[in-house]
Specification:
Blueprint (H helix, E strand, L loop, with lengths): L1 E4 L3 E8 L9 E7 L3 E9 L4 H16 L5 H11 L6 E9 L4 E7 L3 E6 L4 E4 L14 E6 L3 E7 L18 H11 L8 E8 L6
Antiparallel strand pairs: 1-2, 2-11, 3-4, 4-5, 5-6, 6-9, 7-8, 7-10, 10-11
Helix pairs in contact: 1-2
Length: about 200
């Protein structure tokens, strides 16, 4: 587990490989810029080193082109995936100026949005994957008003594991710690879980 505090967000992450694999096929990236925050999870199809190479190639593109539109990112990611395995991808963007969020996905990277009343909304992903050719993606948008947590995860996380009350915790490090304890005996798939706490009043 790792935890990091930014200006408007706190982020805690959990990642574990399938079985005893040396390489996790998932890669992730997050960064807070002046007026927005971006978080991405890419899951290379299959597992092991080849899956990791594909997912990391896509994350490198996202990191290299922070101002690219979703259409541009898909084009650039497809270019870098030529001759590689496919990838499923989810990207969350928090816009501090417009006070909105957008989550766009290709494949089964999922997200749960939790409001301050403890109500949970699951954002259903669009089927498909990036594999070097043109494809479509799904975008879901909402306002940051009344938001408590965002929880993003790859398909190694079972949704029923996130139905418990611990994902309502305002301390994202405790969310990850609790999940880590639940899964101390290992996973049957590469797993990435990222918990994000947003506060419009800024963190000190």
């Amino acid at each position: 587990m790792s935890t990091e505090h930014k200006k408007y967000v706190k982020v805690a992450t959990y990642q574990r490989s399938k079985g005893n694999n040396a390489h996790n096929g998932d890669s992730y990236f997050y960064q807070e810029y002046d007026n927005r925050f971006v978080c991405a999870i890419a899951d290379g199809l299959g597992s092991g080193q080849l899956a990791k190479e594909s997912s990391q190639a896509v994350i490198d593109v996202i990191e290299q082109y922070p101002n690219a539109t979703p259409d541009e990112l898909v084009r650039l990611c497809n270019q870098t995936l030529t001759g590689k395995r496919g990838v499923v991808l989810g990207i969350l963007e928090l816009d501090y100026i417009s006070n909105t969020y957008a989550f766009w996905s290709i494949g089964n990277i999922e997200m749960i949005v939790v409001n301050k009343a403890g109500e949970k909304k699951r954002l259903i992903p669009k089927s498909g994957y990036l594999a070097g050719y043109k494809c479509t993606f799904k975008i879901e948008r909402g306002t940051l008003n009344n938001i408590r947590n965002f929880v993003m995860f790859s398909d190694g996380v079972l949704e029923r594991e996130l139905t418990k009350s611990y994902i309502l915790d305002e301390d994202v490090s405790r969310i990850i710690s609790y999940y880590e304890e639940l899964n101390k005996d290992g996973r049957k798939d590469d797993t990435t879980l990222i918990a994000i706490r947003y506060d419009e009043n800024q963190f000190e």
